[in-house]
Structures are given as C-alpha cells and as structure tokens.
Design brief:
The complex is a heterodimer. Helix content of chain A is 74%, strand content 6%. By secondary structure, chain A is mostly helical. In chain A, a hairpin with a 4-residue loop joins β3 and β4. In chain A, α3 runs antiparallel to α9. By secondary structure, chain B is of the alpha+beta class. Helices cover 31% and strands 37% of the residues of chain B. In chain B, α5 crosses α6. Classes of the chains: A mainly alpha, B alpha+beta. At the A-B interface, β1, α3, α9, α10 and β5 of A face β5, β6, α4, α5 and α6 of B.
C-alpha cells in the first residue's frame, strides 16, 4: 500500500512507515527514552531527503510527547519557572538552528552534516548505553560516579551569578545555566530532529540536581514546546515538514509505545537496554559505512522544492 | 481499450482523402489524476498513418527543477562537494519508436526535432555556473546518466508497434513520481530519412483532492500550515494518549 508524500516528494509504503513509528515507539516504551534519534536516520535510509526527515522528526515528537506532558503537568511535576527559562534558551537555539539548516541545505551540505552529527551522537549514546547495560547485567552496578560528581557539580555551578530561585525544584541557580543548556538542545532539535531528552534528563539530575520527580515532567514539557517551535519554523522557513509522514509516525508510535510499556514492565531492564544499545550502534555504523564506501556515481539528483 | 479497433476504423476513411503524408492519433486518456494512492499510470497512444513509414513518439513533461549534487573524497569520507540548481530540464522525456532512431534520421534532422535524449537538456541552466575548465558537458552527461537510470528519460526503439503498415500503437508508462502540468506528446512519421508528417497531443497531469490542497497550502502558506499542523499534531497526541489511556483502564 503506497502513499505519496507531498513534501518529501516520494512514494512510501504506508505500512512501512507505521511500522517504523511502531518499532521506535515500542523501544521507547520498553526502555523509557524518546525515540527521535532513531526515526530520523530510518527515514533517511529509505530515501527521505535529510532536511525533510529532520523537520518531520520534530513534528512527530510534538505528537508523541503531548499526552505525557499533559499528564505530568496535571500531576504538578513540571517546574514551570525552570521550563520557561529552558524554553527561552531552546527557542533561540531552535530559531538559529533552522536558519543554519536552511543555509546548509542551499549549499548542499545539510545531508553531510546530519550524517556526521548522527554518527557522533548515536555512537556516544549507543556505546555508553552498551557499557551501562553490560555493567548492570554483570552485577557491577554502582552509583559511585553519581555520588562523586555531586559536590563538584554543585560547587562551580552555584557560583555563577545572578542567582534565581526555583522553588518547585528546591534550587537556587543562575538562569544562565538552563539558558545555555536549552540553547544547545534547541540547536540539536533543529539540526537533528531529536527531542534531546537523552541529554536533558542526565543534565537535570547530575548537573542541576533537580528532584527526579520533577525532572521527567519538566524535560518532557520543555521538549514538547521546543519541538513545536522547531516544527513551525521548519515548515515556515524550509517547507520541510511532511504532514502525512508525521501523522503516520505519530499513529504508529502511539500504538508501539503502549505495547512497549506493557511488555517493558515484565521484562528485565538491563537486557532491554542492551538490545536498544545494539540497535543504536548498528544505525550509527550503517551511517558511517554510507559515507566511507565510494558511491557508485559521484553525482546524484535531488528534486528541488 | 475495447473501443480501440472501432475508433481506428472510423479514422481510416479520413486518411484516404489526404494526398500528402499524414497521420492521426488518439490517447486512451488525456489526463492523469494524482492522489495519495497514485502509483503510476499507463496510457495507450494509437493512430493511423497515410502511407508506410516509421513512427517516433516524443513525450516531454513540464520542466522540473532539480539539484545536482557532486560528491568528492575528503580524507576517508565521501561528502557532498558541490550543488547545482538545474532549471529548464523536463522531468520526463520519452523517445519511443518503431525502429532505431539513429538509423531512421540523420543527426541534423534528429536535433531539429529533439530526437536524442541529450536534447532534453539543450536549454538547461545551472546555478551556480560550473567552472569553465570543467564545462557543463560533464554535468550534462552526469545528469542524463542519472535521469536514464531513474527511467525519467527513456529511449525505447521497439516500443511503437506498426500493424499492417497503416496502424500504430504504443504504451506510455508514467512513473509514480512525476511533475504536474501539461505534457506534450509529439508523433512523427518518418520516411526516406525525413520527417514527413507530425501530430501532437496533450496529457494533463494534476493533483487531486486532499493531496493537492495539502501540498498547495504547505507551499503557498508555509507559516499558517506550520502553526495549524503543529497544533493539530499536538492535539492528536493528546487525544490518542487519552484514548489509549482509557483502553488501558477498561
């Protein structure tokens, strides 16, 4: 069953895209991470132009994170003041990133940059997940790292002026820190089509020392509105958001996530994380191989928008 | 398709009146509607000729802007090095004939009617203009190679069938991905190394219904589309979440 994607300008198998959404949703339900960093490379593998893949990826995350954000907001798990400061940063980062994407695309370099960013990101994320899950499976799980970093982190960050109160997180912190973090995440969202939860969550826990309960809600909340901003800008500036592709991915991943969450509760966590880590590393290797082997034809044609 | 022989019978007497060479043609369909489920179309072109000869059919779609990316080796990596915006090149260019075209017509006659595939790229413009040393010949050759590999430019010298010296027919196979607009189909009758008669037809390719509307809005009003679509996806996510949540509790 083929469907024509009006913005990507190509035919895809409808079920294949639903399955992509489903598998990535399933994995994120199992392990509890967002799957944006898998969707974009998968789309690029089947021939979606990189910019459309990245832009549509961020639109898809809007759909998949909306329900979770709402639930956390109702439960009061969102530090609104922190989220607002983070958003100020990520919205600026997102706006800059979309312009950078436009410039790179016009020069024909966007695909290359995205490939490098993904090989790097997936390589780092995959290898660290591999090490963590293998460590956990061998029973060598320890929290030494977290304990050791705690006092060090507090000391230098607490010294940055001016100080601002974040009562929900029970923190006193300079707004410059979340502004910079948000800015980085916004850039990542616009150039890679990821939500950035995999960076935001560890940063909030280990560097900002926010209470874990607030971390998930706040990161999800800021991620929702960051991807929403980037999605609007990608559509407006680059005309790169494919509506059919995004809707199929949202549907697929909503179903997949639910299955994943159910099954994940019954399966051993370390093994699951090992599986995801292997998938992530495999995707990184495939992307790397793609630019290492000599292309059959050094020229290629791309439909102009 | 069943009416095809009948139509031809109706056409034949008309040709009998013609003194010089002439030909008539008809398409089984003169329009293609592209919906989200469109995966290609087949149109039969048929007709009659007044005297024995060979037939060449040329189909040219509207121009379709593309960009041509050139890769180069940087360290161990193969990366995009140059990008040219190409305009003035048709999206599709088909040359279908009843015999090898280069045997039917001399070079200058072929060039005059655009009957070599490279003629499709006669009027292309490259932006930025390529370096002088390289010229655009290498780029044109690369583009032709890619278009042929993609079956966008097709040369098939056995595609037109001639029946009993008076009737001809050929099947035009349109791919899943094609530019919109008015396609021109030229039919040439060739005798004694010369084009002695010609005819043309049009095929209108349009996007229909929802797809047309969606892509038109997304391209013409990108900001409105962005805001409306993003809010829509957010709402969809909320509703899906609630539905699945209710399913879980039940």
């Amino acid at each position: 069953m083929d469907i024509f994607l009006p913005i990507a300008h190509m035919d895809v198998n409808l079920l294949l895209i639903l399955m992509f959404g489903g598998v990535v949703g399933f994995l994120s339900g199992l392990v509890g991470v967002g799957g944006g960093f898998l969707i974009t490379p998968l789309l690029i593998f089947i021939g979606v132009p990189p910019l459309t893949a990245v832009a549509t990826g961020s639109a898809q995350i809007v759909g998949t994170s909306a329900a979770g954000s709402y639930a956390h907001w109702r439960l009061g798990n969102v530090d609104m003041r922190m989220a607002f400061v983070l958003l100020l940063g990520s919205w600026s980062g997102g706006a800059l990133g979309v312009q950078v994407a436009k410039t790179l695309e016009e020069g024909g370099h966007f695909g290359t940059i995205v490939t490098f960013l993904y090989v790097g990101l997936l390589g780092i994320v995959g290898v660290s997940m591999l090490m963590e899950s293998m460590g956990a499976m061998c029973g060598a799980h320890s929290k030494e790292g977290a304990k050791a970093s705690r006092p060090r982190g507090e000391s230098w960050m607490a010294r940055i002026p001016p100080r601002m109160n974040f009562p929900v997180s029970r923190l006193q912190l300079s707004p410059i820190v979340p502004l910079i973090i948000g800015f980085g995440v916004g850039i990542l969202t616009s150039l890679m089509g990821v939500g950035g939860g995999f960076i935001m969550v560890p940063v909030m826990i280990y560097m900002l020392h926010m209470p874990t309960k607030v971390v998930v809600g706040t990161s999800l909340f800021q991620l929702l509105f960051t991807t929403a901003e980037v999605s609007i800008l990608q559509a407006g500036v680059n005309q790169a958001v494919d509506p059919f592709l995004a809707l199929l991915l949202v549907l697929g991943s909503a179903l997949g996530t639910r299955w994943g969450t159910r099954l994940g509760a019954r399966l051993p966590g370390a093994q699951l994380r090992l599986i995801l880590a292997l998938v992530v590393v495999a995707v990184a290797v495939k992307m790397l191989v793609g630019i290492l082997i000599e292309p059959k034809d050094i020229y290629s044609l791309v439909l102009a928008r | 398709m069943k009416r095809l022989p009948l139509l031809l019978l109706a056409i034949l007497p008309a040709l009998a009146w013609a003194r010089s060479d002439s030909l008539v043609s008809e398409l089984t369909s003169d329009h293609v509607d592209i919906s989200a489920r469109y995966t290609g179309d087949k149109i039969t072109l048929f007709g009659a000729l007044s005297a024995g000869g060979q037939i060449i059919v040329k189909l040219r779609s509207p121009d379709q802007p593309v960009s041509l990316d050139g890769k180069g080796k940087v360290g161990p990596f193969w990366l995009s090095q140059e990008r040219y915006q190409v305009s003035g090149a048709p999206g599709l260019y088909y040359l279908l004939s009843s015999a090898p075209i280069d045997k039917l017509l001399p070079v200058d006659e072929r060039r005059r009617y655009g009957l070599d595939l490279i003629d499709a790229l006669a009027d292309i413009r490259l932006d930025p203009s390529p370096p002088k040393a390289e010229g655009d010949d290498a780029l044109k050759a690369a583009m032709l190679r890619l278009k042929e590999a993609h079956h966008d430019y097709v040369l098939d010298t056995g595609a037109v069938e001639i029946l009993g010296q008076r009737l001809y027919s050929t099947l035009i196979q349109l791919p899943a991905q094609l530019p919109l607009g008015k396609y021109r189909v030229d039919i040439y009758l060739v005798r004694n190394n010369r084009v002695t008669a010609s005819e043309h037809q049009h095929i209108q390719v349009e996007q229909v219904r929802l797809e047309h509307w969606v892509s038109a809005v997304a391209v013409r009003y990108p900001w409105i589309f962005g805001v409306v679509f993003t809010s829509g996806v957010m709402l969809l996510g909320l509703v899906l979440g609630m539905l699945l949540d209710r399913g879980k509790k039940a």
